[in-house]
Amino acid sequence: MYQLTKNKANSTPLTPLTFLDRAAIVYGDSTSILYGDSISYTWSQTHRRCLQLASSLSSLGIKKGHVVSVLSPSTPAMYELQFAVPMSGAILSNLNFRLDDKSLSVILIHSESKLVFVDILSLSLIIDALDLFPENIQRPELVLINDDTLAPRQIPALPKSVYVINNTYECLIARGDPNFKWIRPDSEWDPITLNYTSGTTSSPKGVVHCHRAAFIVSFDSLIDWSVPNQPVYLWTLQMFHSNGWSYPWGMAVVGGKNICTRKLDAPTIYSLIETHGVTHMCAAPVVLNILLNFNKATPLKNIVHVLTGGSSPPAAILTRAEELGFNVSHGFGMTELIGVIISCAWKRGWDRLSATEKARLKARQGVRKAGVAEVDVVGANGESVKRDGVTVGEIVVRGACVMLGYLKDEVATAQCLRENGWFYTGDVAVMHEDGYLEIKDRIKDVIISGGENMSSVEVEAVLYMHPAVKEAAVVARPDEFWGETPCAFVSLKDKLKEKEIPTEKEIKEFCVEKLPRFMIPKTIVFRDELPKTSTGKIQKHVLRKVAGEMGSLSLPPPQQLLSSRI
Amino acid sequence: MYQLTKNKANSTPLTPLTFLDRAAIVYGDSTSILYGDSISYTWSQTHRRCLQLASSLSSLGIKKGHVVSVLSPSTPAMYELQFAVPMSGAILSNLNFRLDDKSLSVILIHSESKLVFVDILSLSLIIDALDLFPENIQRPELVLINDDTLAPRQIPALPKSVYVINNTYECLIARGDPNFKWIRPDSEWDPITLNYTSGTTSSPKGVVHCHRAAFIVSFDSLIDWSVPNQPVYLWTLQMFHSNGWSYPWGMAVVGGKNICTRKLDAPTIYSLIETHGVTHMCAAPVVLNILLNFNKATPLKNIVHVLTGGSSPPAAILTRAEELGFNVSHGFGMTELIGVIISCAWKRGWDRLSATEKARLKARQGVRKAGVAEVDVVGANGESVKRDGVTVGEIVVRGACVMLGYLKDEVATAQCLRENGWFYTGDVAVMHEDGYLEIKDRIKDVIISGGENMSSVEVEAVLYMHPAVKEAAVVARPDEFWGETPCAFVSLKDKLKEKEIPTEKEIKEFCVEKLPRFMIPKTIVFRDELPKTSTGKIQKHVLRKVAGEMGSLSLPPPQQLLSSRI
Questions:
Q1: Predicted-complex ipTM score
Q2: In this complex, how many residue pairs, one in chain A and one in chain B, have their CB atoms less than 8 Å apart?
Q3: CA distance, residue B55 to nearest chain A CA (Å)
Q4: Do A208 and B29 touch (CB under 8 A)?
Q5: Highest mean pLDDT range out of B248-257, B423-432, B514-523?
Q6: What share of chain B is helix, strand, coil (3-state, %, to 5)?
Q7: Which of B188, B256, B279, B486 is deepest in the core (most CB within 10 A)?
Q8: Is A223 within 8 Å of A316 (Cβ atoms)?
Q9: Which residues form a coiled coil (chains A, B) (predicted)?
């Protein structure tokens, strides 16, 4: 029996690129992309444009294994490039247009990118980045993506540069061959994307994923969210975030209508929802906040399904979202796992619960999607933690979603892709009795005081409850006796009255009833603003450095070491 | 870049068996299986029962690579075995309980089956089959599946046999270990199923599929049919047909409620639909006919999505189905492709068309599902046929759905798994201008007369239009001059009046206006009944033999060979 094994016909590499050929047949006449008043494509047009673009890339000398980068918000070009670049055989590197020139130059040099597609509003940024290249390093070619929906006054003057741009995006499409045979991967393990992590804890790392992972996660994401045929999908998520959580490829499977937008303010989003009858959107928590805090928001005509990731939505946010007609799903993903791979799968029985109870359940990250082989929460020796909702461990994952590795970084790769066959996420979670997991912290954010682990997130949650606190971040401060003690960086709300401004002592007292003694911050540092990454995440590694330089607190040792905690 | 390749974490074998672990968490409290008045399981019970069963199989000595067979209609046990057998590491062989003892004994011997789970109503059949085993061949062990929903009078007396049955299904479950670690495949290319084709053209062949194929097709079938979370799925399809078109595994992904039934008459099916609020069902065309021809049928309360395969549903059937509230989808599959892999994907624009036009479009088999890499219709030299709806060629397929091969049959395997990397289906089709294909015939059913290919199905379609014809099958009769001529075998409807019974000449005249001259049957043979397989397909190979023995017709050669056809 085992003599029969894979053959030429059944081992055709899995790749999401085959989705587009099919979409051109099944949904050929249906709208694929809408953008502003001027751009509307059908799936056969999108298919043809991608083939033409891939053919032009080949003509420019782009070959299998080359890296081609894109710096753009979620425009039609950004969507097409998710297919066209890998169709040319190249590896697609989506760049974050909110990075600074220095970070971009580091990434471009590290990736050895041959060519960068750049949105006109990021042109100045990329030129600054290229100007930072050392003399001896070859710069990538630039292709300009114009945008006719922009008014001339919206386009800033370019910095002076010797850099010459030979091609525009539409020229490449126009002179491409619509009958181009796109370059199939030799193996489904061939790389398709190279995305750099935004790095809250360290320098950016280049995450490489293969065609197989992109194929499986596309399917998995459609099934897990029950996406029906021909949804209307609004791009409130930046596609540079982990390839738009795989939905650029997924929309070609179900023939969705992609509503692209550059503007992400509440009036624009509500207007697009109403005009186009949006059914689905993914959104970072911040976008969801913008929508729900918009004071002119009125209930939606039809339900809009929203998938959000990152920190779990608080009960008040979920209640408000449901009142307006948003059906919010919550998941967990990371660039290394090519999108959202754990989701808080809803159970029918939960429909009957109170809003608070629903929010508590929904705030948990949940269970692996069906296409992920295994997810576990493990202790230091790799053993599964108890399903008690209390014992913390690290989330580990196995399955097709796991990256090939970090580009040119064997040490970092080996740190998370362990010999025991698991990918270590660096996220700390508990496993609840019902098998749903809930994230507590990043590994590096765990503070160990007197041998006791504490989650900085839990301490922060208490600080956020204080009426005067706008932002809070808790990190470890080294301590001669205790090893570490919790140190809180806090920014206060604007326009507080004099008497509303708390002292360090008042903040600590506020925590007393709400936290075990050892978790109460021993240091409170007030700041006007906490340092953040370009994607808005608080940079704990910066604060950790500050706390590190403070040195040890002179705390009195406890009277009875075994029975009390500081 | 290409140094990064698969690693231990991301190369975990794809297998549908992981779906069940997850279903036990996500849908643990929800109903998994309902059967009669007495059986109702939740997904955690199904999970536990499957683990216990797999553990008992291991205790009985079943090992990786052994074949374990099942002979049962779509009962709860049949559903559980789709998971439990491969969870023990064994290969699952679903047997057709409509076969005769001789065919069964041939299959059991060929597969070297170690153990057969047998439904109580098929016990007598399997014992007859085992009695046919030669002395020197080891017989498989039998495990009896009892059914408490049957009345004692429904259970026939057993034939006399020396064969001893040591175990019953429920005993094996009862003594199994619920904490059994199910046996994961070493590779996703390891076999999971061995299903025998029913063989309209030749002796049964053992089709071997791997875990990877089962995983991919499960996902693909859910997406293509837009199956939502927690559907109510009625088992009108026999699971022995290509593993129930992958929906046993698929239902674990979406936490569906499986309604099992042994009876497939119209009143039972309508009653189950109403009682349980059925949302989805797969059905062979004959079951659909039974439902639509039921004279007491009244419109359904809610839409029921029906997926059907095989011959395309005529317009009248589709119209009637829609009137009643069935939403019929139509696809093409075969055991060698582990289910339905081409489907007539519906386009929104078609909603506006007339019923006849809709039926014409829906009768086409359609386009590949998104998970299938490539499908083409090719001529003798492997070139794609014109997209003209006229030029016929053979359907060829590439993708994860293609079988590993036929067990112990290198010749048959090499005939369809060609060196050029394609799987040849043996089905003849045309490709329409819009990229949808339509099946015309089996390769062996094409008749070549005077160098002109004709589709026997098209000739049969005309014969079926005759008001007195009940069944028609057209095969080639050898001819000295023309090579072959079409020969029709016809059975007439019951209770015709004397004057309604047509003569051979009348049948031919009926065809004159409707077919090209060369396609009009030159021979008409009336039969009371046409020979059929156990699954109800007409056995053309039997008729072909009869026609072959008739020898050449003495037809006059044409006067002008180049300008006319017989």
A1: 0.85
A2: 194
A3: 21
A4: no
A5: B248-257
A6: 35, 25, 40
A7: B256
A8: no
A9: none
